[in-house]
Amino acid sequence: MRKLIYIVLFISGWGYAQITPEFEIGAKGVFSGNLILNSDESSAVSDFSDTQLLMGLQQKLYNDWRTQFVLGLQFPDANSNLGEVFYNNIFVRLEDKKNVVKVGRTLAQTNLNEFPTLRDDDAQRFTYALNPFSDGVNTERDQYANVLEYSRIFKQRLFVSVHGENFYDSREPDDFRLNSMGLTLMYRVPENQRWNRNVLQEIGLSFNNYFTDRPGYSNDFDASVKNVLFSTTANLKPDPINFIDFRFQAIQNFGWDEITQLDDYFDYTRTESTTLFGTLRYLKQKLERPHYQFSMGAGYKSLSNLQTDSDQLLFIANGFYRLGENFDIGLQYRYTENSGFTENLFGQNEHRVQLAIVYSFSKIFNKQFGDREDLLNLEHNYIK
Asked: Which residue ranges make up each domain of the chain?
């Protein structure tokens, strides 16, 4: 009789609790009018690249772990060959308090910092370890990859990550083997404690090894392109209302000694180079919410192994004002200058002025967890 009661309860749904996942949706619209003045020609365009939609499902497992599935789509640059929509995030993450496992497509660890530019690719050649398999047509090929990543978290602030990636190869687009591996050490103040404005916000070191086919080398390590990144963010004035922060990143590319001239973009990413980039930002907050900010940044890249002096310079300045909840207007000016072989690839110089409107939105339904970060933190944010 007792067994019969258990069977009836199970069939009627009383014998178990159905697990309904937490659902989160995020969206960011980036719209700008771009006035471009360079040494060859001038143009004005309407730009909505980097506008994107993100959706995530998160669920508790039967132990101390939980899982998350994220799907994101983005409108790429107009001159890219990625089509109308690019799926920038498609991954599953398993995590508990001290461990994170991630599998799928998402941002690769080719950039350790988040600089206050309108779009994250506005300073791409100075802020990313560039993909040596890419022909340079699409900025997304440096940012996103198919990743297999494990992170261990110590004291909620120190992240140790071992990662392998499959970066898109322009010459072999159907090759999905891992062609990069690396290790990252990062100290970062948790998101829910950043209101304290500690002097040291984050500091990190990363090593990336790209398994390139170097002529004349049979050893995979010797044939590889290797990059070392160092990054830090410091609050120079850790005031909750008026504060100033400084962000800096250095990238050393241990390229191939035999590349002494640049015939194409592949040579540019595979020759030895040293890159420095930093920004100084002032942020004003009212009622514990961002009100407006101003920032200035500069970058320098030296390609020291080339026959001709080939340096690159970047200067960028912007200001953003928050009109309403997550609704901002901004003005950005960017100047780039190239010399030597880089002038043949990218032109002598360029002035770019951008008037922008940015709207961000995120909402969680059936909230169950206190997260380390929300969906929008997966992507670039310039005012927070």
From this structure: 21-379
User: CB–CB of 201/233 below 8 Å?
Assistant: yes
Give CA–CA dist 228/80, Å, rounded.
28
Tell me, what amino acid is at 153?
I
Nearest-CA neighbor of 333 among 51, 75, 37, 124? 37
R_g (Cα) of the chain, nearest Å: 23
User: pLDDT tens string for the chain (384 positions)?
Assistant: 555 444 444 444 444 456 788 999 999 999 999 998 876 667 788 888 999 999 999 999 988 899 999 999 999 887 777 888 999 999 999 999 899 999 999 999 999 999 999 998 999 999 999 999 999 888 899 999 999 999 999 998 999 999 999 999 999 988 999 999 999 999 998 876 766 667 899 999 999 999 998 888 888 888 899 999 999 999 998 787 888 999 999 999 999 989 999 999 999 999 999 999 999 999 998 877 889 999 999 999 999 888 888 899 999 999 999 998 889 999 999 999 999 999 988 888 999 999 999 999 999 998 887 766 677 777 777 776
Which residues have CB under 8 Å from 8's CB, separation 6+?
A: none
CA gap 255, 246 in Å, rounded: 29
Pairwise CA distance, residues 284 & 272, whole Å: 40
CATH top-level class of 21-379: mainly beta
